[in-house]
Design a protein that fits this description.
Diaminopimelate Epimerase, Chain A, domain 1; five-stranded mixed sheet; two-stranded antiparallel ribbon; 7 helices; 7 strands; 11% strand
C-alpha cells in the first residue's frame, strides 16, 4: 500500500517536472524577436503605418546620440508581470547604444488596457521614474484606456523623444546638435553687388557733372575753352566701345546734398525648426544598437 502511494507521488512529481520543462519554451516564445526594418512591433495589430513611421522618424532623428525608442503592442503578457515582460523584451531587443545604454521601450498591453515604459541603464538618473510616470499619465493614459492606441503611442513616444532631445541638446525634428546657419542665397548676393555697382556709377556721374570745364588759359597760353567731359558708362548702360562725349553749358551746381540713398537687402527670417511628428512614407529603421536595462521604469495604475 505504501509502495503504491509512493509510486503515485513519484509519478505526480515527475509529471509536474515534465510540464514545467514543456512550459519553459512556451514562455521563451512569448518574448518576440526585435522587428526588422522598424522600431515598432505591432503584435496586437492596433497601430497604423503612419504611427509606425512616426516612431521610426524619431529614432532616425536621434541616431547621432545612440538613443532609441522601441514600441511593442501585445494582447497579454502571459504569466509574467508587465514590468518583467518589458524587461525581457528590452534586453532581447537590445534597445539603445551598447555603450551608452540609453534605450527606451514602450510596452502596450491591449488586453489589460495597460502600458509600461522601461529605460536603459544609462538613462537612470537622467530621466527619473517619477518623470516617466508623469509622461504616461499625461500622454498615454487617455489613448490606452479609450482604445485609441495610435494616439497613445504617438503622444507618448513624442514626449519621450522631446525628453531625449533636451537631454542630448538637439533640436526636435532635426536630430543634429546645432542647427545649420542660414546661408545667403546667390540671388541675394547678386542683388547686393548690382546695387553697389549702380552706386559707383552714380558717384562717377556726380563727380563728372559737378565741376566746370577747362576755362580760359592763362597769359601766354591758348584758350582752354569749355572742355569735353568724359563719362564712363558701364556695359549694361552704354554698351561696349568708345566713351561718349558731350558739351555741357556752365551752370551753378544746385544747393544741397545728393538725396536718397540705397536701402540694403532684406534680412533673412529666423524661423525656428518646427517640432512636429515625422509623418509620410518614413525612412525605416536600421535596427537596435545592443543596449540593456535593469528594469527601471514605470507603468499606468
Amino acid at each position: 500500500m505504501k509502495q503504491a502511494i509512493k509510486r503515485r507521488l513519484t509519478g505526480l512529481v515527475l509529471s509536474a517536472i515534465l510540464l514545467a520543462a514543456l512550459a519553459l519554451p512556451a514562455f521563451a516564445a512569448d518574448i518576440p524577436a526585435a522587428p526588422s526594418g522598424h522600431s515598432v512591433l505591432d503584435q496586437a495589430g492596433v497601430l497604423s503605418e503612419e504611427t509606425i513611421n512616426t516612431v521610426d522618424g524619431y529614432n532616425n532623428a536621434l541616431s547621432s546620440t545612440g538613443a532609441e525608442i522601441g514600441v511593442l503592442t501585445v494582447d497579454f503578457t502571459g504569466n509574467l508581470s508587465i514590468d518583467d515582460y518589458a524587461l525581457q523584451v528590452f534586453n532581447k531587443w537590445g534597445i539603445g547604444d551598447k555603450k551608452k545604454q540609453n534605450g527606451v521601450l514602450f510596452l502596450l498591453v491591449t488586453g489589460d488596457q495597460n502600458a509600461y515604459c522601461t529605460i536603459g541603464t544609462g538613462l537612470e538618473g537622467e530621466i527619473t521614474y517619477s518623470r516617466i510616470k508623469q509622461l504616461l499619465e499625461d500622454y498615454a493614459r487617455d489613448g490606452v484606456k479609450s482604445g485609441n492606441y495610435d494616439d497613445a503611442v504617438v503622444q507618448f513616444t513624442g514626449a519621450m523623444y522631446s525628453e531625449l532631445c533636451s537631454l542630448y541638446g538637439i533640436t526636435p525634428g532635426e536630430g543634429q546638435p546645432q542647427p545649420k546657419p542660414v546661408e545667403q542665397d546667390d540671388s541675394d548676393l547678386s542683388g547686393v553687388l548690382l546695387m553697389l555697382l549702380i552706386a559707383a556709377v552714380l558717384i562717377i556721374l556726380i563727380i563728372g557733372t559737378s565741376g566746370r570745364g577747362g576755362g580760359r588759359g592763362g597769359p601766354g597760353g591758348g584758350g582752354g575753352g569749355r572742355g569735353r567731359d568724359v563719362v564712363f558708362w558701364p556695359l549694361f548702360l552704354g554698351g561696349w566701345g568708345r566713351p561718349r562725349y558731350y558739351h555741357r553749358p556752365y551752370h551753378r551746381p544746385p544747393p544741397g546734398d545728393f538725396g536718397g540713398g540705397f536701402g540694403g537687402p532684406g534680412g533673412f527670417g529666423g524661423g525656428g525648426f518646427g517640432g512636429g511628428g515625422f509623418g509620410g512614407g518614413g525612412g525605416g529603421f536600421g535596427g537596435f544598437g545592443g543596449g540593456g536595462s535593469r528594469g527601471g521604469g514605470a507603468g499606468l495604475d
